[in-house]
Amino acid sequence: MADYTDEYFTNTDGLKQHYRDYNVAPDGAPLVLCMPGLTRNAKDFGFIADHLKDRCRLICVEQRGRGWSEWDPDPSRYAPNVYVEDMMALLQHLDVAEIITIGTSLGGLMTIMMNALYPGVIKAAVINDIGPEIDPAGIARIKSYVGVGTPPATWEEAVEAVKFANRGVYPKFSDQDWLMVTHLLYEDKDGRPAAQYDPALRKNFDENDDQAAPDLWPLFAQMHSIPMVVLRGGISDILSATTLQRMATEHPDLVPVTVPDMGHVPLMREPEVQAAIDGLIDRFL
Fold this sequence. Notes:
By secondary structure, this protein is of the alpha/beta class. The protein has a single domain, classed as 3-Layer(aba) Sandwich (Rossmann fold). It has 11 helices and 10 strands. β3 (31-35), α1 and β4 form a beta-alpha-beta unit.
């Protein structure tokens, strides 16, 4: 039996959004909102959810146009400010006022924006491989694959495509690792792999570079009182070592964790990552 249920809420534009609800912890456990990256889905948080589920209630959400959430007929609404409002609709649906966030990539940017727009909602944060300043090389790499290419016809083709696109991201992955990551990215439809995001995401991403790489240092400064863990892949092309160092220098309660031999992003199954997140979560138990 799965340790989560598949649930839905309706956002302010009337679209149904899916989330996994890991609700097996004792009553009163902290609620952790897990927000995935640009083209990613709730499955990305399986490792950390399994690690935390006995202590926290985890809500692993899928943004509009991803996973099992409805696609938006207006692609201009695929934008971070809209996603933040969707998250506030989710919290209202859950009747929750305070949360801990785990945000990967786009989800990390959303964390910073949510705190600025709705101060007091976030009481602690894990930001996975992104910061207030984004390396342009990583943006170029992401643009090279979002919404382009021929969909794979077989799972073997899907694995090879994922390997090719991420060969510099996970240089030490085994064949089993590549298969696992492929199944995070695709779902099985009648024996064939199907991508789990709306290709129209690319349109807004292409037309508005600022939404992909805004200057968020002023907003990051507003998080100075929020305990935080920031994860970085040691060879990340999104979050540079220099940016992480500045984040740690400017924030009085930030634990930086760098995972060697890994790019964008750490999978949160790494022991050093889980230990750092444990240290943060334990402060609220």
